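Our preliminary data section would be incomplete without showing what the modeling component actually yields. Below, a chain of 206 amino acids is followed by its predicted structure, encoded as tokens that our downstream tools consume directly.
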Amino acid sequence: MVKDSAGLPAPARRDLTAADRPSLIGPLDTIEVDVFGIPDLGREAQVDASGRISIPLAGTIDARGKTSEELARSIEAALRARYVRNPQVTVNIKSSVSQVVTVDGQVVEPGLYPVTNQMTLMRSIASAKGFSEFAKSNEVVILRTVDGRKMAGLYDVEAIRRGMYDDPPIYANDVIVVGDSPQRRLFRDFVALSPIIAAPLIAILN
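Predicted structure:
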């Protein structure tokens, strides 16, 4: 409780930025490569379906799962191997189609939506234009793969709105399903004992 306050205090500077997450390059992303001092090697390129790009002198390089900095170092190493002296490479991600979340079920516009540093469960649902008319906002499942294990988390958006627990971050390749689903039914015994989900419920699927 904040006493003697006329309203919400202004956020501090650190409150205005989200914690950094690495942006990983994936198939069909578009990147821009610049080689300092060698403009002929600079180009915009699309990562192919197998996650590779082709750079003059450097050859074919696997870009999948790398950050911009990691890919730049890989290109530098390939150029040095071709006798380019002290190459300095910069890579920028121009557009990404691989860093997306799937929002499905009882939302107005199910689909794929880009993931940013600030993406959370509620923002993902808002990207899909919100819940549909008869959506069960207390039955929201996030599906995620962690170290090769498929996991599911059951969330109650109304509980998040009431401040009972934090709005969880969303990552690339997550799948959000609103309403009844096979994964939601895994939690039915727990929910029967406690209809109000005061904290997320997590299950390992494999």
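Residues 191 and 197 are 7 Å apart (CA to CA). The mean pLDDT is 85. Preliminary results of this kind motivate Aim 1 of the renewal.
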